[in-house]
Amino acid sequence: MNWKTEAKRKGEEAEEEFKKWLDEHKINYLYIKQGIKSFPKSFSKELKRPDFIILLPDAGLIMVDVKRRDIIYKYNDIAVDIPDLIKFDNFQRKFHIPIWYAFSNENLNYEDWFWIPLSDVIRLYKDFKMTSKRIGFTSSKSKKDYYPVKLDNFIKVNKREKLIKIFSKSF
């Protein structure tokens, strides 16, 4: 199996595990299939849509993009793809719905999820570009540019915990 096929399979596995977590906690959501026929061509170069719309009682909607990512323990960070970051930022500004990332992987048994609002990643990325004069780094596998986000910027939520934890730590 080639690298791209394996990455796609692992990404779909992460989304399935995330759906199980939402279902176990009886959290209302819409899962958005990412097929090219379900998104207007006019948006495809400019915007990217997240995987889930989650309804939070008394709070409203958030969108979540679920990613299967390894933690880079040597540097204590998680890589965020820069092209996706820019397209999600465009989507969030156009639709006025907050976007969050949720990262986990099979090595964590999808027990722990690392959450961060897109707005925090954008702010950190802008600070990074201003201080380092770099755009980011380039993955040797995917060839995509990425920005490494330090783990202490994330809110770690165990699958046995309630989703409200992301808001109690972010405000």
Your description of this structure?
With 171 residues, the protein is of the alpha+beta class. The chain has a single domain, classed as Trna Endonuclease, Chain: A, domain 1, CATH 3.40.1350. The chain has five helices and ten strands. The strands form two sheets. It has a six-stranded mixed sheet. It has a four-stranded antiparallel sheet with strand order 4-5-9-8. β2 (52-56) and β3 (60-68) form a beta hairpin.
Main attributes?
171 residues; alpha+beta; Trna Endonuclease, Chain: A, domain 1; 4-stranded antiparallel beta sheet; 5 helices; 36% helix; 28% strand; globular
Structural class by sheet pairing and helices: alpha+beta
From the 3D coordinates, which CATH architecture would you assign?
Answer: 3-Layer(aba) Sandwich
Strand content: 25-35%
CATH topology title: Trna Endonuclease, Chain: A, domain 1
* Topology, number of strands: 10
Mean of all residue-level pLDDT scores: 89
- For the record, the CATH class is Alpha Beta
What is the ordering of alpha helices and beta strands? HEHEEEEHEEHEEEH
Low-pLDDT segments, ≥5 res: none
Number of helices, where a helix is a run of at least 4 consecutive DSSP H or I residues: 5
The strand order across the widest sheet is: 1-2-3-6-7-10
Give the C-alpha Rg: 16 Å
Largest sheet: 6 strands, mixed
Q: How far from one another are the termini? A: 44 Å
